[in-house]
Amino acid sequence: QVVVDFERLGEHAAAFQGHDVGFCCLGTTRAKAGADGFVRVDRDYVAQAAELARAGGCKHFVLQSSRGANAQSHFLYLRVKGEVENLVQAVGFDRCTILRPAVLLCKRQESRPMEWIAQQFLGAVARVFPTAYSVPVETVARAMVACVLQPGEGKVKVLENRAIHELGKA
């Protein structure tokens, strides 16, 4: 494990050398970082990390994005997720897998009351419609690993929430 300063990521290029696969789940919230900080973390840092990984020899990049990601969206969150998907694809990896999970179900150390309420509700809904509106983070992690272990099907593969559930159970 290497700790890097994302404000000076270029100085840490050596940390990105010699890896066949890159996994990226980097992100923050607008509430925590402000609009500019959110864009910097969720788009700029991710795109720069992808570029460094590719320059370091990475062949397959796996990006956790979001359901509804769309570079043309009027909503900042979805627009930034769509923009970073496009930027990562443009880097030119041999394979790029983009996961678009719905609401992530997880335990957090920090307090996010509205997210907690949504998770409680969606956790109950998931008992009836398990792949519709949410996904446990453990399932996303298993899907990320599983997509690397499968033979490649094209240069770019986008996995929506249902496919994440299926692959995460394999």
Automatic annotation (TrEMBL):
GO terms for molecular function: catalytic activity. The gene is Htatip2. The lineage of its organism: Eukaryota, Metazoa, Chordata, Craniata, Vertebrata. It comes from the Eukaryota. InterPro entries: NAD(P)-bd_dom, NAD(P)-bd_dom_sf. Coiled coil: none annotated. One of its GO terms (biological process) is import into nucleus. Pfam families: NAD_binding_10. One of its GO terms (cellular component) is cytoplasm. Monomer. Forms homodimers during oxidative stress. Interacts (via N-terminus) with elongation factor EEF1A1 (via middle-region); the interaction is direct and competes with EEF1A1 binding to guanyl-nucleotide exchange factor EEF1B2, thereby inhibiting GDP for GTP exchange and reactivation of EEF1A1. Interacts with nuclear transport receptors XPO4, IPO5/RANBP5, IPO7, IPO9 and KPNB1 as well as GCN1L1/GCN1 and LRPPRC probably through their HEAT repeats. Binds NCOA5/CIA. Residues 2-151 form the NAD(P)-binding domain. This is Protein HTATIP2.
